[in-house]
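Q: How would the structure tokens look for this protein?
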Amino acid sequence: MRIAKIDTTLRNYFHHWINFTLPFHGLGKTEKKVLAEFLYYRYLLKQEVQTQKLLETLLFDPDTKAKICEQIGIPKSRIHLIISQFRKDGVVVGKDINPRFIPDLKVKDKEFVLAFKFNITGNEEGVYSKKSRKKTSKDSGKGEDTV
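A: Here is the predicted structure in token form.
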């Protein structure tokens, strides 16, 4: 297994998490930033709040939304549209973020390991197949990849 170490702040960790898990949610640039910020604030709140109901209330509180808007530079009206889209897409379920989008980062953890397991099911014609290679005059006969 290959491991790449990434030094990061707690806030940026959640942005990395969202970027690395992009194949599972397909969010756009602004939506990724908003979700990462909600995850960051959820993590902070979870350390201090004892009940799930209070966590849900505080997470989507107008003050939290205002902080997120200020942090990423979007108008308050935009965050409401994004949250509405999150609900339609299943990113937000009920009054909380869907658990499949929440990393299992424990309080005071200093590292988190994320692993991907690729299940390669076949070889379709693509960028690196023999049919997609072209021969050039400077070529040794083995061809070059076309991109």
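Confidence is low (pLDDT under 50) at residues 132-147.

DSSP finds six helices and four strands in the chain.

Upvote if useful.
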